[in-house]
Amino acid sequence: MKQIYFASPLFSNAELRYNTYIVEMIRKAYPDLKVFLPQEQMGINDKSNYADSKMIAKLDTDAVLESSLLIAVLDGLVIDPGVASEIGVAYANNIPVLGLLTDPRQQGYDNQQKIDAIAEIAESQFSYLNLYTVGLIKLNGEIVNNESNLVENIEKYIKTDK
Length: 162
Prior knowledge:
alpha/beta
C-alpha cells in the first residue's frame, strides 16, 4: 500500500483539528492509500510522555522515506520548522511534495494598490514564504491554495485505482 506523509504543525487544538479534517478528506477520496499523520503516532507525540529529539527524528524521517508523496501545510507566520525539515528530507530523496497554502493574503495578486504597497516599507499586503523551501517544493512538486485542489492533485503524484 502506498503511503502519503502529512507534514503540518501540530501544537495547538486548531492545528490538530485542521490536520484531522484534511486527512479525513484524503482517506475518503483515496481509501487504498495509507496516510501517515504524525499526531496519530502517540508513542512519540503524546506530549505527556517522553520522546527525545533522536526518537522523533528517526520516526518521522523513516516515515517520510517510506512515503510516495509528502503533503506539506505551509500556512502560518512562517513555515513550521519541522515541516521545512520534512520537505528537505523529501527533496533529498526525490519524493514529490504537494504544498498547501491557504493564506488569503495571496488573493488580489492583480490588485494594483496591493502591488504598489510593496514599495512602501512594511506595507506588503502579501504573505511571504521562505523561497528556498518553496523552491524545494516546486523542483519536485507544486503548491495549491485550497483543500479541494490538494485532494484532487494527489492523483498526479500517486497513481491509484480510484
